[in-house]
Amino acid sequence: MSAAISRFKLPQTLEDVPSDIRDAMLAVQEKAGFVPNVFLMLAHRPDEFRAFFAYHDALMERDSDTLTKAEKEMIVVTTSARNRCLYCVVAHGALVRIYSKDPLLADNIAINHTVAGLSERHRLMLDFALHSAIELGEFSPQWQTRLEEVGFTLDDCWDIGAIAAFFGMSNRLVTLAGTPPNSEFYLMGRVPKKPDEPTQPTS
């Protein structure tokens, strides 16, 4: 594996990776056509790889009360942009484009979601995500009332805060390792998909 993927030691080949982690990498490669660099970076510590993706999947793949996949990825992009994490902005920006079918949305919210022409629901969702990830993060009765007024349930509020918090950690790990985004992420969702084009990766 390339040293350019991480400042930390990586397995030399996939054969040096524990079988369950290798299977996870090969599965995402089959689905997306490439292995996202974060998978390779986290192979530095297999136990942390397993814990990271178990929590990632628990948050991002569960059916929330009202949060859509596009909204979850919007939270990731907004939080990651504030943390100046290029990898997560680029990788999850691709997922925002795919899930929302809007080629401009990810770029707009990464720069400044307050002037991106969002609905009140989405603006408040991202305000709360940044409050949870960047500021004190206190979930006051006032925040709960405001979020419920635009249609979020109490469990949705947990999801918004938990996704923002989890990806705050992810941002810092990627920055620590110096892991760059895969070049494939940059065009995903910007141009029409070809019939035989692989589907999106998970992260």
How would you concisely characterize the structure shown here?
The protein has helices at about 20-30, 35-40, 45-60, 70-80, 85-100, 105-110, 120-135, 140-150, 155-175.
Total helical segments: 9
Share in β-strands: under 5%
User: Which regions contain 5 or more consecutive residues with pLDDT less than 50?
Assistant: none
Query: Major sheet, described briefly?
Result: none
Topology, number of strands? 0
**Coarse structural class:** mainly alpha
| Overall outline | globular
Fraction of residues in H or I helices: 55-70%
Could you explain how this protein is built, in words?
Residues 46-94 form the Carboxymuconolactone decarboxylase-like domain. This is Alkyl hydroperoxide reductase AhpD. InterPro entries: AhpD-like (IPR029032), AhpD_core (IPR004675), CMD-like (IPR003779), Uncharacterised_peroxidase-rel (IPR010195). By secondary structure, the protein is mainly α. It contains nine helices and no strands. The chain has helices spanning 19-32, 37-42, 46-60, 69-82, 86-100, 105-112, 120-133, 141-149, 154-177. Helix 4 packs across helix 9. It starts with 18 loop residues before the first helix and ends in a 26-residue tail after the last helix.
